[in-house]
Amino acid sequence: MNRRFRVHWAVISLFCLLLGVLATFVRSQERSSASSIIPEAGVPAPAFSGSDQNGTVHRLSDYRGKWLVLYFFPKAGTPGCTTEACSFRDSLLKLKALGARVVGVSMDDRSDQGHFSRKYHLPFPLLADPTGAIARSYGAAGGFLNLDHRYTFLINPAGIIVKRYLDVDPDRHARQIQEDLRRLGAREATS
After folding, report:
1. Which of 12, 58, 130, 164 is a good FRET partner for 111, with 20 to 30 A between their CA atoms?
2. Contact at 8 Å (CB) between 40 and 161?
3. Please, what are the domains in the chain?
4. pLDDT tens, 101-149?
């Protein structure tokens, strides 16, 4: 019995190790293949158009003259995505005071975005991007399980990407963006 237990434990351990190595390899391949199409800071933000949870269409041009926090998240309602969205919700007044607007994007459909928004009282647009068209234009498509990568782009009032966040910590991301907006000279909004 003891020897049999050790053999099972060894097989399970080996399987877990191989699974971990495979997952790490897949993530590195996804990141390296996506990194060649992720827009750099200093270039115009790719134009987008998409419907939010209420059916309202949002375009990049709608945010001309304002700072835009365009964030991509993997799946509405999952733990990390909920933490990140609620952090933006709780920081929204401070972000707006700096002249910034927040727009979330995921490959969820409009119904899922609506449920997520209502459940957590999210007062900003969540664009439904079920085909991944918006995510592909920002290099955020095709993450683990073909879900969006957790990327954020800070776009200035002229429509230029000034900062990209490719390694997001959902717990502190909204604070990080506030600090970066201040560092970049964002001022109290006049409108």
Report:
1. 164
2. yes
3. 37-183 (3.40.30.10)
4. 999 999 999 999 999 999 999 999 999 999 999 999 999 998 666 678 9
